Amino acid sequence: MSPDAEPSEAAVARVVRRRVATWIAPALLVAFACAQIAVSQTTELTAWKGGGFGMFANTDQQFSRFIYATGVTQGGRAVRLKLSFAPDDERLPRKIHSRVRTYPNESDLRWIARSLLSIRLIRDRADRRDTYRVPKAMDVDAPKHHYARLASVTLQMYAKRMDLAKSEVRAEPIGPHVTERAVEER
Question: Does this model's pTM top 0.85?
Answer without folding.
Answer: no
